[in-house]
Amino acid sequence: MAALAAAPATVAPESTQQAIGYPSLFLLVLIGALVPVVPTGALVSSAAVVAVHRTAPFSMALVFLTASLAAFLGDVALYWLGRRGMRSKNGSRWLEAIRARAPEDRLAQAQDKLADHGVAVLVLSRLMPAGRLPVMLACLLAEWPLRRFVRGNLPACLAWTATYQLIGVLGGSLFAEPWEGVLAAVLLTLLISAAPSAWRRLRPR
Fold it and tell me: Considering the entire predicted model, what is its pTM?
């Protein structure tokens, strides 16, 4: 009984959780933008679920600002590294990483759409699963200057964060316990991410 009574005292206060949570969210989304193996959409949705259940004001706004800034800085850094790789005689591992995750058919589609619609394609690419890197590589091959990429990438990151945050809000609202909402949001975002790849494999050639 004494242990049960002492248990609530061991839970970190909400202010401490926020002090740890927001920097962690920023770093993970930033790393996920640079090394596209981290499911950053699931991270944003999970953070939104937790924010729904918090009593602190501005939790949702802080999640939005933190994730948007991290995604934006990560994209800009990766594009800058890719431009350096394009100018380098030996390329770079960052440029090779982008090429490895941009299949030829997706790259060709991205180049055609980029030529027709410009910055709008960059905005939409952030919302499409596995669409960001082919369009980024198309921008590199089209020799977009960094300033032009930044102008298109800012609204793209804002729209991306808002979309995955909305998924988290829906998950947090449907379930009483935060962990249930987090689980639902993670499963949904992973399903969304895997759907295009599964469709390409299953559709008749």
Answer: 0.77
